[in-house]
Amino acid sequence: MYGWYLGLVLLVALERVAELVVSLRNARWSFAQGGVESGRGHYPYMVALHTLLLAACLVEAAQRPFVPALGWTMFAVVLLAQGLRWWCITVLGHQWNTRVIVVPGLRLVARGPYRWLRHPNYVAVVAEGIALPLVHTAWVTALVFTVLNIPLLAVRVRTEESALKTALA
What we know:
Blueprint: H1 2-32, E1 36-38, H2 43-61, H3 68-92, E2 100-102, H4 120-134, H5 139-168
Antiparallel strand pairs: 1-2
Helix pairs in contact: 1-2, 2-5, 3-4, 4-5
């Protein structure tokens, strides 16, 4: 089962590359519209943590068994998280980015998952950070990622809220 899991983690890594391509395109658009970037200081840590998540999944999972009841359930959560992430990306359109870039004067998006949640993409991030390692019983990776991700997400959400408040004022 480890070979299959290796493929899954590589697919998630490719998905991250696709996100970066979309993010770069959207950043160019945002800056052309007068967008202002905030929170550059935390961004490298976020990239590092998410990259280490993928590597740690592979290292730890090589030492762990595949437990079908846990693995298949967590695989479904990973798929749902990916669906939510791409729903957010699609709904936000040019405004979506892996960085915090806000174009002054644009209205907040209030459709799609943003009807119900202020930051639905982070629900996907948290779910995936727990579920992806647990697909192959890598519980230490799930725990460490989650513990490190909590303060990082707190900084990220505060940064976004501050940037949005400034841009919409």
